[in-house]
Request: fold
Amino acid sequence: MSKLGKIARRTFLIGSAAIVGGVAFGYYAYKKPAVNPLLDGLADGEAALTPYVKIDASGITLITPRADSGQGAYSVQAIMIAEELDVELDQFKVDPGVPSAAYYNTALAAESAPFPSTDDSFTANTMRGVMDAMMKFMSMDITGGSTTVPDGYTKLRVAGAVARETLKAAASQKTGVPVGQLKTSKGAVQLPDGTEILYTDLASEAGQIEPVEEVQLRDPSTWRFMGKPTQRIDIVSKSTGTQSYGIDFKVDGMVHAMVRTNPRRGGAMLSFDATEAEAMRGVQKVMQISTGVAVIADNTWRAIQAANAVEIEWGTAPYPPEMDAHWQTLSDSFTPDLVDSTLRDDGDIEAAENGADVIEAEYRAPYLAHAPLEPISATVHVQDGRVDVWTGTQIPSFLRSNVADITGVENENVHIHMLVMGGSFGHRLEARVVKEAAEIAREMKGTPVKLTYSREEDLTHNDTRQIAMARGRGTVRDGKVQSLDLGIAMPSVIASQMGRQGMSVPGPDTQIVAGAWEQPLSIPNYRVTGYRAPELAPISSWRSVGASSNGFFHDVFLDELINAAGADPMEERIRLCWHDPSRKVLEKVAEMSSWGGALKPDQGRGVAFCMSFGVPTAEVVEVTNTDDGIRLDRVWVAADVGKVVDPVNFENMVQGGVVWGLGHAIMSEITYSDGMTEQENYDTYESMRMYQVPQIEVAGLENAEQVRGIGEPMVPPAAAALSNAIFAATGQRIREMPMNKFIDFV
Amino acid sequence: MKLTVNGTDHEVDVEEDMPLLWVLRDALGYTGVKYGCGVAQCGACTVHIDGEAVKSCQISAMDVESPVTTIEGLGTPDALHSVQEAWIEHQVAQCGYCQSGQIMAAAAFLAVTPNPSDGDIDEAMSSNLCRCGTYPRIRAAVKTAATKLNGA
Reply:
């Protein structure tokens, strides 16, 4: 335990500050040399100290800065603090935190990487790949990359422990009882005689003394909340219609806005005629904004109706208008001059292919929308020298900077209020709705403006998942996979995404090969090459990012090679896998699914493995080829996140991730025609529904050393396991998504 | 126009074609009713009219002649409906945005189908979309709710 104390001392600086009537406890890292050029874009005060525990006479507030888009982030962050703070789960409020000059005044530089540069272990190298882009932004207050639990696993517990020990010190000072004789329980310090002093009654004293920095984290065997089923703090409100989301937000005097922007993304607006719209009931104003037209009305529906009545002539898109040219661009990108990375290059591919029968295959993955069920919205109030923004977001610090630029108000006077999100899946890593709302609100100074997208505006302006293509070449010998050479071409997600924030990202984009290059397989001749295709339509981080396409490409091609070798798909994957926790997830799904057991006629099973975001995940899908098409019967999943902090939520997230992966693989795509998204609503952008959902059995293993997040890693292997299962059941190999273009589903 | 919602009478002055969904949300403040698609594809706006599950984006408020029940009227945190109890026990929600509609659909379905088969549940609940993929838990919660309602 002393080791943890040392870690806290060396790695973290724990601060506390007196606030009005109480105390705030925080955490921040040492300032590191600026290793990431992207950090140069940070404005003053943007990376401010985030406190985690605030106590005053009115109660205890745990600050959970990682945004909750439905993944249970608020609950899991609160559990990690509460475990050490000794408060019950009904004794505190949760607040995502509002940057405030009152006490968040300590600068935070780049957060350190979880691995020193000297660490050449497999895990370290794997994680560095992940970190290349998204994780570096964590220090900019981003929620993403399945990092909420790994990011908070130690520091939130440390924050809870520091608060607890400081409160004990305050109690000792107040009562004269030595700290060693004090205990804590249920939000109070207990004296040896049984007297209890509530934390809330100690807050003022605690704010006046030096925080206790040398703390010991509790042994996991004593945990009361972590690793055990707990009730999500938002489960009652989300089951009674009382949870307020961004779209439900209200403030006095608020007007409602809706925008129309070019459906040919990034194209110009040539002209517009708002005569009809201006005459509609409730319409207060129609204004041109930099990207199109905004209509201001007295309610949401009227704003949407009137915006749709504006006649607009749009200019052309900066990308090819039809899909054929998008695919041709990818097809033309497998050239030496577009090589972005060759992070995996083992053995000698050319020698292995010499004289052997080379198996070749080509794979495709379409554009996909995030399409969270809550249409995006933002409320912005511009006043003299101050702007308030209320929205659901994964990027509050970026938004603050964007809004400051648009309104001309100083960064520190832009207040981002984080609201609960009805889903995100990466959608709310974008700033568009907030930028537009800020532009409108700037023109309506003094009046709060709530901009709500219609579903159609939202879906046709989604910065989608990347389109991607892969080409595999491989050989087998003596019943084993002898070589695997996979090239993957896609435009850079990170370049497109960060480009919209005015930033460029130097070096290779490891997302082009994520979910493929870092697989822990000892194939003797093994190469993964990333080709950076030219930019096409705007793309963004979609649940599991590069791995969402690459996990499919890599594992289906591996399955093809294993089949050619005549080996068993499970046994050969296990044989090839050298990484212990990864091999164990394969062995676990084999056991769970009774792999190799008898199947009914027309049934087939496929297994797939993918390590993404550092989480080894294996999935087995069982399908039946019925007269009505392919029916999904059962799925078994095993994943290793090092520690399952919240087992109920873990299972929910795993099942949801599998449904997400399978549903999109079967039936979803975004396509462009005449430069415009062809899918405008859920009737054409389809998702998995109840009757299509298989039984999904979940196992969470804890053999891995590092604690990881579960939000994304379930997605990459799902499509591959399904394709492999369909092959087993029918003999038909599906290499392109959505799969319902090639085979019928029930 | 008169509208009775959760036992309260309201007088509203809106356009003839304004959907019930938006009257409930924007004019009357029943924000438990959610806007997801506006075209009857997602079911997030499901309410009860005469006990029947109706997608409130598909009916104009003008055409509503019977009392409306929204999620707020089904049960409250202090007085939960059996379906809500089941949703909490199974911890169904992730983002939770679809769950008002899911719960309203399930409550109306169980009122007329007290002993549903798995196939009945799948069929009844398939017009409600959940982008988070909480379907396995919805399935389990509907079964638990059926048991609770039958025992009541």
